[in-house]
């Protein structure tokens, strides 16, 4: 009984808090520039407002449809699961994908079996939580792509250029 009341309170807070946060943001952005307080530098002099062309545009990036990690536009494949990166929209709007526990390749969320190993896929979040099933990685080891020869950090599993599984360099 007590836990159900606590769960209802948590659920109510989770539903109300985002709405109030959005309302607070809308209220602040609705103010005209003359109503806002001028920004002041550390020396006490007011700073000038940035013109629209001076504002920094968000840097373009690609995101992995499986693990939802974002990369700069230089990579074509995710270094965590080898999935091809998606461009143009944030992966946060899509569902997290599936991963093969044998070869560690990532697949879309609607896949069931790995075409490489015929092994059943697991959700990426569950695979990440089961860290005891992963082989230990030496922290001082470096990896290299056997296809293109680019060196990678020891934590990377796949090449960001061509999606090939990396091998440890002795």
Describe this structure in words.
The chain is an alpha+beta fold. Helix content is 21%, strand content 13%. It is built from two helices and nine strands, in the order H-E-E-E-E-E-E-H-E-E-E. The chain has a three-stranded antiparallel β-sheet with strand order 2-1-3, with no helix packed on it. The chain has a three-stranded antiparallel β-sheet with strand order 5-4-6. It has a three-stranded antiparallel β-sheet with strand order 8-7-9, with no helix packed on it. The model is unreliable at 31-43 and 45-50 (pLDDT under 50).
Question: What's the arrangement of secondary structure elements?
Answer:
Elements: H1 2-30, E1 61-63, E2 70-72, E3 86-87, E4 98-99, E5 106-107, E6 122-123, H2 124-129, E7 142-144, E8 151-152, E9 167-169
Antiparallel strand pairs: 1-2, 1-3, 4-5, 4-6, 7-8, 7-9
Sum this structure up briefly.
With 170 residues, the protein is α+β, with helices and mostly antiparallel strands. It is built from two helices and nine strands, in the order H-E-E-E-E-E-E-H-E-E-E.
């Amino acid at each position: 009984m007590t836990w159900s009341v606590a769960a209802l309170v948590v659920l109510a807070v989770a539903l109300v808090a985002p709405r109030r946060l959005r309302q607070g943001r809308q209220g602040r952005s609705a103010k005209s520039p003359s109503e806002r307080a001028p920004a002041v530098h550390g020396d006490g002099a007011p700073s000038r407002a940035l013109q629209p062309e001076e504002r920094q545009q968000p840097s373009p990036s690609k995101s992995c449809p499986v693990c939802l990690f974002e990369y700069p536009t230089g990579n074509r494949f995710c270094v965590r699961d080898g999935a091809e990166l998606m461009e143009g929209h944030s992966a946060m709007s899509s569902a997290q994908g599936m991963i093969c526990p044998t070869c560690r390749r990532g697949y879309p969320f609607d896949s069931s079996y790995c075409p490489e190993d015929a092994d059943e896929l697991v959700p990426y979040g569950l695979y990440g939580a089961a860290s005891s099933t992963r082989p230990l990685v030496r922290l001082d080891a470096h990896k290299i792509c056997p296809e293109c020869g680019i060196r990678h950090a020891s934590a990377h599993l796949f090449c960001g250029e061509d999606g090939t599984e990396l091998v440890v360099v002795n």
